[in-house]
Amino acid sequence: MDYRRIIPCLDTKDGRLVKGINFIDLKELGDPAEAGAAYSEAGADELVFLDITATLERRKTFLDAVKRTVDAISIPLTVGGGIASIEDINKLLALGVSKVSMNSAAVKDPELIRRAVGEFGREKIVIAIDTRASSDLPSGFEVVVRGGTKPTGIDAIAWAKKVEKLGAGTILPTSMDADGTRAGYDIPMTRAVADAVSIPVIASGGAGTLEHLYEAIVEGHADAVLVASIAHYGTFTIRRMKEYLKSHGIPVKL
After folding, report:
1. CATH code (residue 106)
2. Is 221 helix (H, G, I), strand (E, B) or coil?
3. pTM surpassing 0.90?
4. Which of 32, 135, 215, 220 could bridge across to 10 with cysteines, CB 3.0–4.6 Å?
5. So what's the pLDDT on residue 148?
6. Which residue segment(s) compose the domain that 41 sits in?
7. pLDDT at 25
8. Is 64 known to be catalytic?
9. Which residues pair with 143 in a beta bridge?
């Protein structure tokens, strides 16, 4: 059965688990490997590990924290942040990472997507698209890079279509306006991306209630939901999230 996935997101800085609002005002929450182990045990379908300041600080992902997290879990792990070359991807996959996520580097050099897919296969390549609302673009959504700090003038929906053509296997669109607010996912943006492509789309940024997860899947047409604050702060367990979705007719893996 094609079930919908719950994917906790481990935002990290300097190898430590953090959470902020709109990627700023970061609070340290502990060790990503410990959190990853707990989510793996609790029934999460996958995990995403994002080194959220790597690109901004012009450095590579902290490989030690990634390796410890891989070793602590039994579910697939996607890693993003500071990945800018085939060599970077190779190093992460060699550690046991299931997929890699690229954002700023892919915007700068779209052919990197094609090369990475050719080298490693489309199922290994996730393209993260950070967006902000913009009335200047046809879709109303602009791609931003460098941890959400730099506007690009690129239309987010046109970019989503392009990365699919270049071979990406999954798209992870995050609303920078909604991130960490717990006010709900940006449904119009998520749906616009999901309806523009035929590859899986993971809703990200802003989950605060169980209803938000349902909305992202039913109204946003997402294949999976990324969760952070509501999981990290113990608002809901992974099982509670899945039971809620199941009770509302969404297929999940319990």
Report:
1. 3.20.20.70
2. coil
3. yes
4. 32
5. 75
6. 5-247
7. 63
8. no
9. 131
